[in-house]
Amino acid sequence: MTGEDERDDGDEGRADQFVCTAAVLDVTPDVVAVSNLGVASYVLAGVADRERNFYQWGSMGVTTPTGLGLALAVDDPVVVFEGDGSLLMSLGVLSTLGAVDPPNLTVVVWDNAIYGTTGGQPNHSASTDFVGVAESCGVPATRVRSEDAFEDAYRAATERDRTELIVCAVEPVDPDTRPPFDFAHIKRRVREELAGE
Ligand SMILES: Cc1ncc(C[n+]2csc(CCOP(=O)(O)OP(=O)(O)O)c2C)c(N)n1
Ligand SMILES: [Mg+2]
User: Fold this and answer.
1) Is 8 inside a domain boundary?
2) Which atom of ligand 1 is nearest to the CA of 87?
3) I want to staple 17 with a disulfide (CB 3.0 to 4.6 A). Which of 112, 162, 170, 190 is the partner?
4) E strands along 84-152, which residues?
C-alpha cells in the first residue's frame, strides 16, 4: 500500500471534496473530467461547469469504464471522479485498467462510505480495500484523507505515464449545485470540444 496511512482511517479526518475537485482543475486545467452521477457531478459543476466535463446522469457503475474509453480516444489528460458505491458496482474495471493502462488516465475515488446521492445509505467501502484490489490488478494506487495529500498524490500521478488510482476519504456533502440537465447537450458539448465536430 502506498497511501499516507492505513486504510481504516475512520475518525482520523476526511478531505473536502470541493477543495480536492478544485485542485484537480488547478493542476490540470485542460483535463477531461468524467464525473460519477450525483454528488461527484454536483460538486464538479459547482467548482466549474466546463466544456471538458462529462457528467454522468443516472448511469451508475459506468464512470470509470467511460473514462477509460475516453482516455484511449484522446491524448489529453483524463480524470475520473468516481464514487465508492459506483466503483463497487463495477469493480472488475480495475482489472481492465491494469491490463490496458492508458498513460493519461487518473481515477479518483471519492470514498464517503455511503451512497450519498440517494440519502446516505452505508455501502461496503469500509470493508473493501480499493487500493489492494487495484494494486493486485496492476494499477498503482494510493489512499489519502487530506486536501494537501490529495493534491500531492494527484500531481504525482499526472507526472507519471500510467493509469493510477487515488482513493480519497471525503466528508459527505450535499451540494446545491447541479450540472445542466440536458443529457444530449452534455454529450454534444464534450464531443465538440474534444473532436472539434
Ligand atoms: C444501476 C443503478 N442503481 C442505483 C441507482 C440509484 N443511485 C443513484 S446515485 C446512487 C448512489 C451513488 O453512490 P456513490 O457512487 O458512492 O456516490 P455518492 O452518491 O456517494 O457520491 C444510487 C444508488 C442508479 N442510478 N443506477
Ligand atoms: Mg459514495
Assistant:
1) no
2) 15
3) 170
4) 105-111, 114-115, 121-122, 141-144
118 lines ligand 1 (CB under 6 A): yes
Task: Kindly report the CATH number assigned to the domain that includes residue 36.
Answer: 3.40.50.970
161 CA → ligand 1 middle, Å: 31
* Count of positions (residues) in the chain: 197
CA 72 to chain centre: 17
Distance 51 CA to ligand 2 centre (A): 25
Task: Report the amino acid identity of residue 167.
Answer: V
Q: Please, which pLDDT band fits residue 184 given cuts at 50, 70 and 90?
A: very high
User: What is the DSSP code (8-state) at residue 59?
Assistant: -
On whether residue 5 sits in a domain, the answer given is no
The answer, yes or no, to whether any atom of ligand 1 lies below 6 A from the CB of 77, is no
Its domain, for residue 62, covers: 17-195
pLDDT for the residue numbered 12 = 78
* Number of domain units in the chain: 1
